[in-house]
Amino acid sequence: VCVWGGGCKYGDGSICDPLIYNDGGWLRLVGRIVESREQGLSTRDAIIDGVVDTGTVITAAGVIMSLAFFGLLLSDILLLNQMSFFLLFAVLFDTFIVRTLVVPSMMYWLGEANWWPRKMPSSPLSANAAI
Known about the structure:
The chain has helices at 23-38, 43-73, 78-110.
């Protein structure tokens, strides 16, 4: 429950959490990948697990934010139309291209270099081996 007098915390995942889309989307995605990797999954399986677990929240937050910017697009003021168009494009691009394709593919490409200088478990489990 969100209480404006201090009931909300940054990063708590509630509906009033201001970090769900902005910094929180990155924190959720990468944080979930790190958690999965620390549990012993391989880097590839941890990336898949992170994207699957956080994809719906990040996508929903991006769509809601783009709908808000679309409302500004209906304004009669030219400056608001231009700004809302670019904000709408940027949010949709970030939601559907960067956070779902670019970040996971770069993390997969970097492999174990993602975790430098930190040490991760040396015997990664495959998601298929757990079945």
